[in-house]
Amino acid sequence: MYGDIVILSGAGISAESGIPTFRDSDGLWNNHRIEDVATIEAYERHPEQVHDFYNGLKIDLQKALPNPAHLAITELQNGYRNGTVSVVTQNVDLLHEKAGNRNIYHIHGQIDQAVCMNCGRITDARGEVTTETLCAGCGMAATLKPNIVFFGENLLRMIEVDALLDKCRLLIAVGTSGAVYPANTFARIARYHGADTIEFNLHATVNSYDFDRHVIGRAGETFPRFVKELSAEK
Ligand code: OAD
């Protein structure tokens, strides 16, 4: 029986919804150089190219539907009586929201928003954003950036996430390779504070030693089964 639960999700949880992960063989980063589309320097050097990339990605992500792993989180949140279930996601898609999950923390940003590099205002950006788009806050053009954390930028919502990691009694990582700092330290931090840690992935990851338990397989199959087991433990 656990207290608060943190679910750390990565691209693997959305793979069965048809969204490519970043580092698998058909991954998003295979067709693109991170330096061209996902660094703050790239955005400063050629913002048009960066906007084109995210405008295209946005169309694909908006079409995607949640899979059984996302839906199982809602089931867990609805049925769990021993604490809060929070979702800390590295994903910029909105499949946790579409599945009805609550307490979602997008630490790498989200595809449907833009942030103004002049006034800091975050705006709804479900449609195309270009260097011509005016900021709704300060009215300037060419200042909007996808509200996605690029390499070289700080993560979002980390004060809240630090508190969650401190307090949780179970950390569950679903579909993340553990390649990107600092999300790849969350299991270690939660464990240091006394949490049990479980990893759901197709295979063991580079920081597998941070997890007490490994569940190998497709998250859309393994994670709903786990939620049923956890509910039956009550
Ligand atoms: P990765 O592409 O690095 O890793 C995806 C992980 O999901 C891999 O370990 C796969 O084995 C696993 N996986 C794939 N399909 C799965 C399935 N059906 N069930 C379970 N696991 C599966 O993606 P992330 O770890 O999320 O940052 O990458 C972290 C960050 O790197 C991303 O948020 C992104 C990228 O740079 C930004 O865009 C800011």
Secondary structure layout:
Layout: E1 5-9, H1 12-15, H2 28-31, H3 34-37, H4 40-45, H5 47-63, H6 68-79, E2 85-89, H7 95-98, E3 104-106, E4 109-116, E5 122-124, E6 144-148, H8 158-167, E7 170-174, H9 186-192, E8 196-201, E9 213-216, H10 219-232
Parallel strand pairs: 1-2, 1-7, 2-3, 7-8, 8-9
Antiparallel strand pairs: 4-5, 4-6
Helix pairs in contact: 6-10
Bound molecules: 2'-O-acetyl adenosine-5-diphosphoribose.
2'-O-acetyl adenosine-5-diphosphoribose binds next to helix 1 and strand 8.
Question: How would you summarize what this structure contains?
Answer:
This protein is α/β, with parallel strands linked by helices and about 230 residues long.
What does this protein structure show overall?
With 234 residues, the chain is α/β, with parallel strands linked by helices. The strands form two sheets. It has a six-stranded parallel beta sheet with strand order 3-2-1-7-8-9, with helices on both faces. A three-stranded antiparallel beta sheet has the order 5-4-6. Helix 9 links the parallel strand 7 and strand 8. Helix 6 runs parallel beside helix 10. The longest helix has 17 residues. The chain is globular and about 55 Å long. Bound molecules: 2'-O-acetyl adenosine-5-diphosphoribose. The site of 2'-O-acetyl adenosine-5-diphosphoribose (OAD) has 27 residues, from helix 1 and strand 8.
